[in-house]
Amino acid sequence: MLKRHANGTEAEIEIAMRNDERHYGKSGGMRPGSPSTPGLPISSGLPGSPGSPGASGRGDQQQGGDDERPFSEIRRTIFDALRLLSVHRWSFFVPFCLVCCGAFVSSLYLPRSYKATTSLSIENDPVMINGPMSAGLESYRYFRKSMSRDLVSVGTMGPIVEALGLAGELYYDADGTLTSESLQRRDSMARSISGTVAVNTSSASELTDVVSITYTGPDSTIGRKLVDATKEAYKERAGEWMLSFLTRRSDYFKNEVLEARAEMLAAQREEAILRMENPLVDPGNPSAISEKLSQLRLERRGLDLRRREYESELVSQQQLLASTSAISPMTENSGNGERLMSAAAMSLASELQKIDQEMIALRRDHGVRDAHPEMVALRGDAERVTAMLETQQASDAERLLLVEEGRDDELALLGPPLVGKVWSPETAQINTQITASTNKIREVDLSLASNQREMVAIEDAKSKVFDHQDEFSQIESRASRARKRMEQAELTVGSVAPSIKGLEQNRMIHFTDNGPARGGSIPISPKATTIVLLSLLAGLAAGGVFVILAEVLDHVYRSSWQVARSLGLPLLEAIDEIVTAQDRRRALVQKAVVMPAIILVCLGITGLTGSMAYLSIKQPWTYERLRHIPDAAINLFIDRDTVTADASTEEG
In angstroms, what CA-CA distances link 586 with 27, 29, 479? Predict the structure, then answer.
């Protein structure tokens, strides 16, 4: 010890001084100005001691050498802190335990937050997932979020509160509905509880949704019941919500069909009107006008050629007729047994001959019998023409008689002079051919006139085709868009209809329950580790504060160098503390009984309160049983005293 004081470094001197403090500082120290200095070591007056004259230079040299070492300030700070804790250990230990106990006890009254959760899976219909978007209808992704919001609304949570009896006793009217006061109380409770329930929807796959229902609130008794009831309410109402969603979608697209059909019909009507006004214009194929014009020109050339042929035939037939017969006044009989006939009679005779030829051709070429309707019609025509011919012949005979008798005045009354031709089968046939050729020429002329009109109209339409092309294109485009929109809307309505029917029959929604609610009995806030750490930190902070206060307020000399520094004089000698037997007994009792008892009591109270705080969070049921043990013991003691008093009263 003396060598370390005399020749050791400053660190060794500090260690020796701390050993002296452990040995002499336990029985107290001496305040400045006291007549004696108990607890000072004998060697304090030797050279090299803190107060000796030769110690100053060496100490400065040692101090300078120690300052040059790394982390010297940190080491000195740590040594000082350890010295303070060693000297004022009770000032640290007791406040530490008391503050920890207070923090643990205070944590028992902190509000607890409990959590209960459950989940279920829904298999969605592809119609709902793949439904087309529109400006007037939300998508199914947005609809799922609205379902989650509707689930925690007052309208949904009200029946749940009523079923679980969370609003207390409710009263009903005669019709079975809640009274206004009970309804208001139920809705108020539902509104407060809805803030503690959270519904989240996540998509595990394209057609599967996972709905998580979570309760986070201060009541541990209703958590699991509430989320399970909310899950059942979701199952019951999901069908109604989806049916409403699909019904709105179907109604929307039905209106789309009607609007698109009306738009398409209006466009088609405009197109029809435009085509009626411009029948020759084909906007889809403008070259068709040129093709039509070419066809008409080709047709005109063919008609001109046919007309020339018919004219040639007519000229040859007229020449043949002129060569076979001549026009002469009517006589009763001609030299060759033929008679003269009027032009009208000759026409009727030719028509009758034509009918007979048709009947002969039908029998020969087609094997038609006389009972055939066409043969019957021809015979009727033949009879009608025969009657007309007989009438005409009678009229012609009357005219001939008047001519022969010379009664010109009566003949004038019947009309112009009667001029006829000699009738014969050959003449009649030639006349028929001339009439047919004339009719053919007339028909060709009509066709040529029609062809000319069509060519003029097409030429006019050809000049206007580009004027109407844009108008036709706009109308056709509008009609095409309306048709596509109508077809798409009809397809959507057709795909939604089976889903609506399936919802009405409870066949479309498939739920998969992922189990009953979990949690609810162990609080999630505050955390047990947080409470323990904060309590220990508060205890450490309180102990540190009390140690600093004890050091600041402590005026006791605990080492010889404190005395030397206070006096400014070197110490030559110090007398050790005189310890008596009574002092030794008192010190033994303090070390063996009092200090361990205080330590055990403080640690026991701290451990008990810490255990209660930990159990109140991690095992609240165990904490409740332990908390009611004193009440049960008191009640048992009171019941026992009551039974004893009753027994004494009965004996008295």
Answer: 11, 17, 115
